[in-house]
Design a protein that fits this description.
There is one protein chain. With about 325 residues, the chain is of the alpha/beta class. It has helices at about 45-50, 75-80, 100-110, 115-125, 145-155, 175-190, 200-205, 225-230, 235-245, 250-260, 280-285, 315-330; strands at about 1-15, 15-30, 35, 60-65, 65-70, 85-90, 160-165, 195-200, 210-215, 220-225, 265-270, 290-300, 305-315, 335. It contains twelve helices and 14 strands. The chain has a six-stranded mixed β-sheet with strand order 6-7-8-3-9-10, sandwiched between helices. A four-stranded antiparallel β-sheet has the order 2-1-4-5, with helices on one face. A four-stranded antiparallel β-sheet has the order 12-13-11-14, sandwiched between helices. The model has no long low-confidence stretch (mean pLDDT about 90). The structure holds adenosine-5'-triphosphate. Adenosine-5'-triphosphate binds near residues 11, 13 and 42. Belongs to the ABC transporter superfamily. One of its GO terms (biological process) is amino acid transport. InterPro entries: AAA+_ATPase (IPR003593), ABC_transporter-like_ATP-bd (IPR003439), ABC_transporter-like_CS (IPR017871), ACT-like_dom_sf (IPR045865), MetN_ABC (IPR041701), MetN_ABC_transporter-like (IPR050086), NIL_domain (IPR018449), P-loop_NTPase (IPR027417).
């Protein structure tokens, strides 16, 4: 659905060039939820704004649905952009227009008949759960409700792609989750390809199928979310994964246990059905080692359940080595920490 080929972008500031993107290659499939994660200044906003040419790349190609956007005339680009919706961190709503008018705006620009606009606005209000708020102004809404208006407006012209520029960064955790759930429903119901940028691994883990990690204007790692989560390669990816992995309490416990003596502490990650099976207990029965749970969590990676247990293994050296091998042979990720 979206291909970025050797994309470069630098900004001109005075007489100097500020590099923002350096040789980006990305391919995003139809119907995917694709996340791009990076620290501040890594180039995320520039990247997503290049996907609808809000930002003109310095060189490279941006192909959306088979069309190279960089080759279009201004008029053709305007037409094509109707098929690419976008939502923003600070919502960008018209403050002097009601919720209904904000959603109707792109339909009016597309010169749709009045009856069509009425019908579509009602449909979109229902989709985002704001039927009761049609005549309110943005100032009368909460952050989450404003973002719902932003989403409805972005969907007005039935786009094939929805770009989300830090769409939940201004929201509290609970509201973030409700907006992410809405995006996931929209992706399922309407089959829209969603690209989102964020600096929060939690967002990636909740709804994305694949993720790219951007650092210094380059993609340093990309892959299915579960792979990147379980086997992060690049130091920046590892940092992001740690954001959602270990609590301070765990780090303190591990440090304390290690200080007390020569302890083997492992982090075991379960994915999918294994999450609910007594794999650990069965393995210990085989090897004769025993374990002491230091921390455990069960969560979800989009639709896949996953669990992490941090345990201290106890037994003879050979039993411990056998246990780690046996767990790995059962397909579990085991990291000795
Ligand atoms: N309009 C601009 N003029 C000059 N430099 C810019 C401009 N916009 C971005 N930059 C620079 O380009 C680089 C990438 O910026 P970008 O905003 O894309 O990063 P980001 O990952 O989205 O960061 P943040 O999360 O802080 O928004 C940074 O060095 C930034 O200072």
């Amino acid at each position: 659905m979206i291909q970025l080929q050797d994309l470069h972008k630098h900004y001109i500031v005075g007489k100097s060039e500020v590099p923002a993107l350096s040789g980006i290659h990305l391919s995003i499939g139809k119907g995917e939820i694709f996340g791009v994660i990076g620290h501040s200044g890594a180039g995320k906003s520039t990247l997503i704004r290049c996907m609808n040419l809000l930002e003109q790349p310095t060189s490279g190609r941006v192909i959306v649905d088979g069309v190279d956007l960089t080759s279009l005339t201004a008029r053709e680009l305007q037409e094509k952009r109707r098929r690419i919706g976008m939502i923003f961190q600070h919502f960008n709503l018209l403050s002097s227009a009601t919720v209904g008018e904000n959603i109707a705006f792109p339909l009016q620009l597309a010169r749709r008949p009045k009856a069509d606009i009425e019908r579509k606005v009602a449909e979109l209000l229902k989709l985002v759960g704001l039927e009761q708020h049609r005549d309110k102004y943005p100032a009368q809404l909460s952050g989450g409700q404003k973002q719902r208006v932003g989403i409805a407006r972005a969907l007005a012209n039935d786009p094939a792609v929805l770009l989300c520029d830090e769409a939940t960064s201004a929201l509290d955790p609970q509201t973030t989750n409700s907006i992410l759930a809405l995006l996931r429903d929209i992706n399922r119901q309407l089959g829209i390809t969603i690209v989102l940028i964020t600096h929060e691994m939690h967002v990636i883990r909740s709804i994305c199928d694949r993720v790219a990690v951007i650092d210094g204007g380059q993609i340093v790692e990309t892959g299915p979310v579960a792979d990147v989560f379980l086997r992060p390669q690049h130091p920046t990816t590892k940092e992001f994964v740690e954001q959602v992995a270990d609590s301070m309490e765990l780090q303190e416990t591990v440090a304390h246990e290690k200080a007390v003596g020569d302890r083997t502490i492992v982090r075991i990650t379960f994915l999918g059905e294994q999450t609910y099976q007594p794999v650990l207990f069965e393995t210990m029965m085989e090897t004769g080692a025993s374990f002491n749970i230091l921390q455990g969590t069960i969560s979800r990676m989009k639709d896949t359940p996953y669990g992490q247990l941090v345990v201290e293994l106890d037994g003879k050296k050979e039993q411990i080595v056998n246990t780690v091998t046996a767990l790995r042979n059962r397909g579990l990720e085991v990291e000795v920490i």
